[in-house]
Amino acid sequence: MAGFGITDGLARGIEGVQASVSGLLFEPVLRIGVTGLSRAGKTVFITGLIANLLHRGRMPQLSAEREGRIELVHLQPQPDMTLPRFDFEGHLAALTGEVPRWPDSTRAISELRLSFRVKPAGFLAGWRGPQVIHLDIVDYPGEWLLDLSLMEKSYAEWSEETLSRINSRSQAVDFVAEARAVDGARKLDEAEAQVLAQAFTGYLHAAREAGFADCTPGRFLLPGDLAGSPVLTFAPLPQPATTARGSLWREMERRYEAYKSKVVTPFFRDHFAKLDRQVVLMDVLGALHQGPQAVADLRRVMAEVLGAFRVGRASWLTSLLGAHRVEKILFAATKADHLHHEQHPQLTAITEALLAEAKSRAAYAGAEVAAMSIASVRATVEERVEREGESLPAVRGRLLASGKQAVMYPGALPHDPLRVLNPAREGAAQWLDADFALMGFAPARMGLAPGQGLPHIRLDRAAEFLFGDRL
């Protein structure tokens, strides 16, 4: 009986390997992670991408579509039965309803599979039939992404960095005063720990509302079923001279380490580390509107977070064994429809400059990296406005707050990105020679012609970079 068990186990293992190899060779699977920071538009990006892959009339830059090689694209049940399905239909209904609205933001991990039937290109076209290729899109909250930067930091390092970084922020005044007044060497008082954790959570919510990107730990903002648990009941504290067992400091440290091991590590292992391609969405225009400190914050956070990617091209053997590496990373500045197309090159140049450090790190390890400006769903039309005898490039759309039509000229983005980066590096409180305005636009009412997806800006170019080579 024991021998049968071992043989049966080996047989199942061989079958599993054969199935994996067969899938990779004959129906390859590409896993794309969609991530970004709060309000960058992850849900809208995925919805717009899927809608335009199912109905490809607006995708001329996707080479397989332009060459007429895509025979069919359809939705499939996702392979991971334990993950929620990305609610594409519900989000599409929100965008295309009688009164269009933006769908709710990502609050948990979800997944969706698109399957392509594609005719081969080149010399294979004459003797090989169409191939099935699966595209698994994994959506997860940007707040969880930031947690990956905690994996190599001790509680003492994280506390010191956090308190130093937020010390001058108005949103953190009350919490920082409370934290610095605490003696971490005292014996743990659970009520005191709860008060500190609640004050820190309040700061994180206020900082996110103010446009700061470094709002971590992410589960403090999206606790889910962890609400009230010890892994969400800690806060950064100044390190006391002594940290005896049973002290407030030691218990905060223990809970911080539990957060890393019980929350962050499983997410990294089970989902993040299995991605082949990655989209990093950034609200660069929002940061410009908030000012130099928000731009500096965005630049620093993205450089730190991208260190968690296992970048570089995987060999064919490691791919067969499931050891994925991120081969391509797209840095996408969203909401390009808030600008006239004349200013899109400046937005792309600023995005590239913001990510120069992180981009060079990823490229050095072998990943192919690109930056572009996109609008996943276009909400505006372009116009020109006259101001003091000058014709200025503007956009018009339906205001999110009132539903009324409005024309916006956001200001001129500089052609030289250093005019943005230098004040950010120097810690300037505001832009000295410019003011970048931003309005919140609601989705436009749209009538879609047969075969056409949602209107967008450069979503087809983004798709071509991310997976055009696999089609």
| Count of helical stretches | 16
Mean pLDDT: 85
Reported CATH architecture of the largest domain? 3-Layer(aba) Sandwich
What is the level 1 CATH name of the largest domain?
A: Alpha Beta
- How many structural domains in the coordinates? 2
**Backbone shape:** globular
Helix-strand category: alpha/beta
Please provide the ordered H/E string of secondary-structure elements. HEHHEHEEHHHHHEHHHEHHEEEEHH
Counting DSSP E segments of at least 2 residues, the number of strands comes to: 10
Can you tell me the residue ranges where pLDDT is under 50 for at least 5 consecutive residues?
1-24, 316-321
Question: If strands are numbered along the chain, what order do they take across the biggest sheet?
Answer: 2-3-4-1-5-6-7
**Annotated CATH homologous superfamily of the largest domain:** P-loop containing nucleotide triphosphate hydrolases
Helix content: 25-40%
Q: What can be said about the biggest beta sheet? A: 7 strands, mixed
Radius of gyration based on Cα positions: 24 Å
Q: In what range is the share of β-strand residues? A: 15-25%
The CATH topology annotation of the largest domain reads as: Rossmann fold
- Separation, N- and C-terminal Cα atoms: 48 Å
Organism: Pseudogemmobacter lacusdianii
Protein name: YcjX family protein
InterPro entries: YcjX-like (IPR007413)
Pfam family, one: DUF463
